[in-house]
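Work Package 3 (structural annotation) set out to generate three-dimensional models for the target panel prioritized at the project kickoff. During this period the team completed the workflow that converts sequence records into discrete structure tokens, so that structures can be stored uniformly alongside our sequence database. As a representative example, we reproduce one entry of 578 residues exactly as it appears in the project archive.
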Amino acid sequence: MSSPLLSVQDLSIAFKCSAQKISQVVSNISFDIHEQETLALVGESGSGKSVTALSILRLLRKEQVVYPTGDIWFEEKSLLHASDKQLCKVRGNQISMIFQEPMVSLNPLHTVEKQLYEVLALHRGMRRNVARSEILQYLDRVGIKEPKSKLSAYPHQLSGGERQRVMIAMAILTHPKLLIADEPTTALDVSVQAQIIQLLKELKRELNMSMLFISHNLNIVKKLADKVAVMQQGKIVEYNNKQRIFLRPEHEYTQTLLNSEPGGNPVPLPNTSGILLNVNHLGVEVVAKKGLFSSHKKVIVNNIGFAVHQGETVGIVGESGSGKSTIALAVLRLVKSQGDIVFDSYPIQNLTGKKLLPFRSRMQVVFQDPFSSLNPRFNVEQIISEGLMTHKKFSKARREQEVINIMHEVGLAPDMRYRYPTEFSGGQRQRIAIARALILQPELLILDEPTSSLDHTTQKQIINLLKSLQEKHKLSYLFISHDLALVYSMCHQVVVMKEGNIIEQGSREKIFYSPEHEYTKALLSFLDKPPRKANKTLIHADKAEKFVHKDHTQQDQQQAKKDDSKINWNDALLMRKK
């Protein structure tokens, strides 16, 4: 067999805490990636996946990182011992990387075209007039709608999914031999995820490209990877081909990951629940510049109407850029809108300033990216108590006690309240964001993709937390997500959006079991395991129990190694679960 393109051998990674003390975050890991092969690195947040990926290109700060053991070999040359000049030839040209946080990675001061052109000019020596057609081609390939109109846009003018797609286009423009993709589909809806997976497969074939794919989304890993390495607390606990990992996992932690898919039902509705939020004929327009002296109005959402009852969860689903987050901003009165917004029988559409302030404490929001939404200069106590400073006239001692109480409630140790956001994992930061929203005792909580950046085990913990809080405090949720499995688990009513319009809405059962619109049917077709009604679930549970006690024959083992197209993944995974 030929030598691997990339070989990580007995690698340990540590950070300097002081002159004498180091903290080891990755311990003695090894894996290989051959030409045209995809290795998926999976595990919980904080397991060491991203640190490993950054070490391959030596992107961690020299002053802070040490490598106690091991080496990283690319085309049989050491990257850990390469000079800066040698690394410059590898970075971008031969190994390219898609980073996890597109808003942080993209330059906020430069347009999309300028940032993509810099890549082509630096690595492929292209002139601007030739580069533009190449840029448009790749923006179209990664699913950017109307790519010409996005050339002059800045990162903040794009949706989360669009920013992620620009990052993917930037990485593949150089035709690298190895692509490191660190959570490249986190902010994307299921239909675009499918497009990106197909695109990456095509690029692998066209460019003879290999890939290190880091993800917590096991459904995508299953579709894209050839081999899987499972990381836990800085160690690789299981490393095997994809079929073996998914059908016959050996390590207990791997089994836990595979069984951490969201499930269950929404919390029971209260016996009597009036309408808390009523939205009718909602529209949002923005002024978009066409040229130096001309502009036009662009409709973002059009004639939207829905209601949220007390104690109810209404889910809003749709593609990235369909207007989901814009609706949330309009309800919170953070963007200008037309139409009627009625909260607890009181019209708030035209309220401003002090008149709107009493309603702000009753409507709170948890944003998609807790890293960006938490002030890095504030410690946790300051972040959580900030709302109390505005809305409640509590003493300092009372504020501190309220912070301690809410931290207990969301599962955070109160002695962490003097730490800063950078000292927490993604799941912990999201709990901080939830605590900040709940401390004001709101009646409506708007959840804008609250778990999209979290691994499945942490995601399950956050969803269970939200359900328990909703049941305890009779909260109403407006739940915005592209994850249909989560929507099924959380929501009583579902609103399906496309290009700023509602194309279908109704109860969870109606949308998932009897969809009418072709777009809704298309969205549901991307579900890896479509939700089943209770009687069917019981039948499959019986099958699962029989399969657990059945001895695996040699024929079963051979079948597991066959091509993916011959494996019924849904039935196999249903039967594997205990």
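The CA atoms of residues 50 and 182 lie 7 Å apart.
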